[in-house]
Specification:
The chain has about 450 residues and is of the alpha+beta class. The protein has two domains: about 25-50 and about 215-459, no CATH class; about 65-195, Bactericidal permeability-increasing protein, domain 2 (Super Roll). Helices cover about 25% and strands about 45% of the residues.
């Protein structure tokens, strides 16, 4: 009986301590992630256009190597003029550039056949050079518009009719025939030149190619999908025997993580808009993550094992776990000692540009934790645990941003989207836009600014 009373007395004496050591958790904030509607950024990709005049000249000479520029085998056409005439290239065409005008000299061999009296006819040959001027522009449907006219002609060897009565100069007759044929000659050159300078196939190829998702960072499996929304072009100009222009493709850039994203192609190239100059600023919203396990490891390194006292009561931090609750981060803190259980802090992550790190602003006890502790362990408020926890919620971003910048620049050094279409550029700056929470990480959205060219073989 005496032994039973002693045991009962011990049990009653220990009851308050048994009660205080019971594991009790504050109400747990739910894990939720709201949808984020980010405004699309309009960016510009530049496609340089460079047409070699030497290539154009070679093409023209090849095209006309065995082709007559003018043919007239009738005595009765052109107002019954009694004259036949053929003209074909006798030497290589030479070409000069001036603004948006091409001037070229075409040496020709002329064959004439003149109808004489009583059904007789006589033939003549001569050599001359024609000077053409072509003004060119690009139409809204991306076709080339040319306006060619003959400026003048000069005889190298004048045509002479050979008859039984002697040689008869027919330069005057030949000049009349040439004047009547100028429009035909100009039209022929317009057709050939416009065929040689065709931008639409190359623009279509580039427009389609840049929509292919690009793997910007293999570590994060970060894909950038470019969606073109508009296109414009600077006026054609000439420099160092080259016809130049810039095509500016306005686009939206979207970032996705994980497997290569599927996409629906924006297939149709819009009509051309003319602009005076092409902006070369390429802006892309990319991201770098601090995964929750990594952030937890940093916080644990500063907090786990620390003891906080208030009078005779004390608690020890045993573990920390993080997750998101819309815009705020939840810090689940497991305590042991005078209070055994989980309490919850909440605050909003933000980037500190001075320290180049993520801090958690206004970190405080969750409202349900406050209510719970006021009833069961209000003394915890009097300790330094909240202040210490706020100091522990600091996640350096130096290496993350450097790594991201390096990965993007490596991709921009040379990225072949498809054979004949190469993306190249430079990354000038990276700045932080905002911080948000995902189901797996604290994500820092970055603005990356630079210059990007898309080189298309043939342009």
């Amino acid at each position: 009986m005496k032994k039973t009373l002693i045991l009962l007395s011990c049990a009653l004496f220990a009851f308050p301590f048994c009660k205080s050591s019971k594991i009790t958790d504050a109400p747990k904030p739910p894990e939720t992630y709201g949808a984020v509607a980010e405004q699309p950024i309009v960016s510009t990709m530049t496609i340089p256009v460079s047409i070699s005049v030497d290539d154009l000249v070679r093409s023209l000479n090849t095209k006309f190597s065995n082709q007559a520029l003018f043919e007239d085998y009738s005595f009765t056409d052109n107002g019954n003029d009694g004259l036949m005439m053929n003209a074909w290239k006798s030497q290589d065409i030479t070409l000069f550039l001036s603004g948006n005008t091409i001037k070229y000299r075409v040496p020709l061999k002329i064959w004439l056949k003149k109808e004489l009296l009583l059904g007789a006819a006589a033939e003549a040959e001569g050599d001359l050079a024609l000077s053409f001027k072509t003004t060119f522009s690009i139409l809204p449907d991306w076709s080339l518009s040319t306006q060619t006219e003959v400026e003048y002609h000069e005889w190298i060897s004048r045509p002479v009719l050979k008859t039984g009565l002697g040689n008869i100069s027919v330069e005057t007759v030949a000049n009349l025939a040439l004047n009547r044929s100028k429009k035909t000659l100009a039209k022929t050159l317009d057709q050939v030149v416009s065929q040689q300078i065709s931008l639409k196939p190359f623009v279509q190829e580039a427009w389609t190619a840049i929509q292919e998702p690009i793997l910007f960072d293999t570590a994060y499996q970060m894909w950038v999908k470019t969606t073109p929304i508009g296109i414009a072009m600077t006026p054609l100009s000439t420099l160092n025997n080259v016809i130049k222009a810039k095509i500016a493709v306005e686009c939206h850039n979207d970032v996705q993580f994980g497997a290569k994203p599927l996409f629906r192609e924006n297939a149709n190239v819009p009509p051309l808009r003319q602009i005076t100059d092409a902006p070369d600023e390429f802006i892309i919203r990319v991201a770098t993550d601090v995964p929750y396990p990594e952030a937890e490891a940093i916080a644990k390194g500063m907090m786990v094992g620390q003891v906080f006292e208030s009078g005779k009561k004390k608690v020890k931090v045993e573990d920390i776990q993080l997750w998101g609750n819309n815009e705020k981060i939840v810090v689940n803190t497991k305590l042991s000692g005078s209070f055994n259980g989980n309490i919850y802090f909440m605050g909003k992550p933000a980037f500190d540009p001075v320290k180049n790190q993520i801090d958690v602003k206004d970190l405080d006890f969750h409202v349900d934790t406050k209510n719970f502790l006021h009833r069961s362990a209000a003394w915890i408020f009097q300790g330094a645990i909240r202040k210490q926890m706020a100091a522990a919620m600091a996640f350096p971003m130096d290496e993350n941003i450097k790594s991201m910048k390096s990965a993007i620049q490596e991709t921009l050094n040379y990225y072949e989207i498809q054979p004949g279409v190469v993306l190249q550029g430079t990354l000038d700056s990276v700045s932080v836009e905002n911080v948000r929470l995902t189901p797996t990480s604290i994500r820092v959205n970055l603005f990356s600014k630079g210059k990007v060219n898309v080189d298309v073989k043939g342009l």
